[in-house]
Amino acid sequence: MRIILHVWRQKNSRDPGRLVRYEVPDVNEHMSFLEMLDVLNESLIEKGEDPIAFDHDCREGICGMCGMMVNGKAHGGFKGTTLCQVHMRHYKDGDEIYLEPWRARAFPVIKDLAVDRSALDRIIAAGGFISVPTGSAPDGNAIPVQKQDAEMAMDAAACIGCGACVAACPNASASLFTGAKIAHLGRLPQGQPERDKRALAMVLQMQEEAFGNCTNIGECEAACPKEIKLDVIARMNRDYLKAALTERILVEKGGAG
Amino acid sequence: MELKSRVPSGPIETAWDRHKFELKLINPANKRKYSLIVVGSGLAGASAAASLGELGYKVSCFCYQDSPRRAHSIAAQGGINAAKNYQNDGDSVYRLFYDTVKGGDFRAREANVYRLAQVSLNIIDQCVAQGVPFAREYGGTLANRSFGGAQVSRTFYARGQTGQQLLLGAYQALQRQIGAGQVKMYPRTEMLDLIVINGKARGIVTRDMVTGRIQSFLADAVILATGGYGNVFYLSTNAKGCNATAIWRAYKRGALFGNPCFTQIHPTCIPVSGDYQSKLTLMSESLRNDGRIWVPRQAGDKRPPNEIPEKERNYYLEEKYPSFGNLVPRDIASRAAKAVCDAGYGVGETGKGVYLDFSEAIQRLGRQGVAERYGNLFDMYERITGEDPYKTPMRIYPAVHYTMGGLWVDYNLMSTIPGLFVLGEANFSDHGANRLGASALMQGLADGYFIIPYTIGDYLAAAKPEKVSEDAPEVKEAEDNVVGIVKRLLNSSGKRTVDSFHRELGQIMWEYCGMARNAAGLQKALELIPELRERYWKEVKVLGTNEEFNQSLEKAGRVADFFELAELMCLDALQRNESCGGHFREEYQTAEGEALRDDENFCYVAAWEYKGAGNRPELTKEPLTFEYVKPAQRSYK
Fold first, then answer.
1. Is B66 on the interface with A (CB under 8 A)?
2. Could you tell me if A123 and A104 lie in one domain?
């Protein structure tokens, strides 16, 4: 089949950028979406044109490196699927597809479809961990964990940090990402000692980055390729509120998303 | 060159404890005076950087991805082994040690493997404490499952995303140290050369992948944790960015390369669908716990699998290996799949595939029961192939997955360049000629959390690295080398893309240095590779400049190194006139087609030394001795 692409081309962070039209003939239905872009890039290089820059790595939906807006939907809008796992059998001959980078003030464009998501790392660095120095852990079975808690922690921990939630959110909020980590660690007995501190520090850092606030729209849940549920944001808000009432010093800088 | 393995003498059970006591220490106040470089942020790199930062060292950590959380350890699905014996099924440190030495076909150092089995216990404790959401039983205790090459259940798992959860644990520990100012992180930064001053590793040259800036970083020691080199085959289960450049350029600076030909071909991957294919996707080995592998008894049988009656199916692994059945080690399962496909029994459009069938498991456990164990893998399979594995068997075929070979290291994980340490898949140790499932995660974390923090102190205390200046001629020379390579690639005025060359190299390697090798084929590859490499430098086309985000340029440098490494792999495969583990030389097999080792002549680690461009590298042998697990023909029957 033949696919027509309109791709956001932006040389660097200072370039205003624009959409450019490309045609990809002979697209095979078994190709992945990114393989279709590979084929286009190969032909561009052969013609002496700058290939399209896009981030990708594992191509099996787990590293979180890939992602772009496809016809206005993060990762193309297929339930629970990263873009690298989308195959061309979902499209038909003559389809026109618009490709744009994640759009968010906190994610400046590096080039074309590649953006800088380091703000997400800084949120984790602020408190998204359990402080356990290497070597100081008790036996793995010393603290039983309810099966259901382990499962729910895992549901939240499945986040791959791709940033689709931010890109899908009209406010460009990172609440789903932040809430997922707070819900993951806060669900486990090991995460209790730092639960308050974690919620305060991570929410604060989220606000210091250029993310917007959560207004309970729910686009993030719909866009999440790992199907993280909105209730992680409720847990974040609860943990934040509870902590804010007891740890007063940090509260002054703001409220939860 | 003489290789000093520094393996402690005396009883193996206490070797590591005695060795740890003998290692020199650095007092806490002095640790902050030392700076360390860690390249790579996967399980080995992130755990090392976090642990060393905690100890007080000044650590700089580098990765090519946009975040350390994305390293390819994240894609490991099935699990991590540990000799906890929580299942009361007869496991022990000694048994894990025994299984790993045997699984590696007697080509690993006993003392290293014993230590690995010992620290496996600490790894699980550490990860649980970090909040890794391992699967649990209803009583709240940790759950286990079985993996290939073992008759006990010792594999801990977090659904089909164990690597992800372990890496996120290490990543979070690393981010904690970054937040605390103990580790400085350099993402989107690629190491392109090693700086060696007065015979010691003292720094690296990097390229900032956003701005193109080429820069040197100096330190008191350098740790490489940059993963394996399976992408030399172009198609593999590795991430697209995985590359050998860091270890290869260290090799060219004098670090010996151990067992380069030892490659693991994983038996359960989704088959290739076309020539646009960019990578191969693994289906976890854990599927072999409940899935049954078969092909039709009649060659070329084109009926849909559900219409082939039970008695016309050949469950070849269960028939040939009744005691291990579908859970034989990876090398054996892969070769068996190749053998039935070569004989014309393969399934799917290309005939390169075998069925992995869950119908019996679905009857036994119910659809929900199967979904609980493997749901995400089934979903992934369906997304990629468009077929529903709950209804029709999966089709699978072997693919390049892991490289047991890597830079040679001693018991302290130090390479032949003093001050250069190598961890995880990037080194050659522990797995011999074949790695057992769920052992890569174990080794990466063992090296990073529990070995390097001890051994690096001993090096620093003994070597007392002197001050070095950024103006040292060695720094300038390394920078010039990097600039030279970049310029040469950009100035090449050819017409072909980097990928087209890489694909061609991959085909040569798969054909002649893949699942089965022979002397004639390897010799042929040794003619084809240098020819193709020469054409590469003349005909490759790399657009753009250095001073920008230039993904073609990144790839071009990595592929240039793959060409050289490919040649070394073939040389190594050619000198090893035996079959062992993943290295199967067709000339050396038993009457039943199993690998035939030659312990008399090849019970050694082959360590190769770079002797300059155009010269044959020099082979040094580290003899292997087996005092505890006596080499025997591996039997999984």
1. yes
2. no
Mean pLDDT of B159-164: 93
Residue B633: inside a domain: no
B237-294 pLDDT tens trace:
999 999 999 999 999 999 999 999 999 999 999 999 888 999 999 998 889 989 999 9
- For residue B504, pLDDT over 90 is answered with yes
C-beta separation of A10 from A111 below 8 A: yes
Please count the structural domains in chain B.
Answer: 3
Whether the CB-CB separation of B116 and B430 falls below 8 Å is answered with yes
pLDDT of A249 > 60? The answer is no
pLDDT in tens, B583-632: 999 999 999 888 999 999 999 999 999 999 999 999 999 999 999 999 98
- For the question of residue B292 being annotated catalytic, the response is no
Q: Give B 382-401 residues with CB within 8 A of chain A.
A: 383-384, 386
Chain B partners within 8 Å of A143 (Cβ): 128
Is A118 an interface residue toward B (CB < 8 Å)? Answer: yes
pLDDT at A248: 60
Task: Using a CB–CB cutoff of 8 Å, tell me whether B559 touches chain A.
Answer: no
Tokens of A82: 């990263």
Of chain A residues 139-178, which have a CB less than 8 A from chain B? Answer: 139-141, 143-147, 150-151, 153-154, 157-158, 160-161
Note whether B372 and B416 are same-domain residues.
Answer: no
Q: Are B42 and B126 found together in one domain?
A: yes
Residue B141 shares a structural domain with residue B175: yes
CB < 8 Å to A117, chain B: 66-67
Position B280 in a domain: yes
Q: Compute the C-alpha angle A54/A55/A59, nearest 5°.
A: 115
**What is the four-CA torsion angle of B537, B540, B545, B546, rounded to 10 degrees?**
-50
Q: Which chain B residue's Cα is nearest to A133?
A: B54
Contacts with B44 (C-beta within 8 Å, 6 or more apart), sequence order:
B73, B225, B423, B424, B425, B426, B443, B444, B445, B447, B448
- Kindly list the residues from chain A whose CB atom is less than 8 angstroms away from the CB atom of residue B75: 58, 60, 62-63
CA A230 – CA A215 distance, rounded (Å): 12
pLDDT tens digits, A133-183: 999 999 999 999 999 999 999 999 999 999 999 999 999 999 999 999 999
Quote the ipTM score: 0.96
* Domain interval for residue A165: 118-253
Domain annotation covers residue B74:
yes
Residue of B303, B284, B293 lying closest to B339 (CA atoms): B293
Identify the closest residue of chain A to B124 by CA–CA distance: A140
Last residue of a domain, one of A111, A126, A158: A111
Number of domains forming the structure of chain A: 2
Domain that holds residue B453: 12-262+404-463
> Which domain-ending residue is among A88, A111, A134?
A111
Domain assignment present for residue B245? The answer is yes
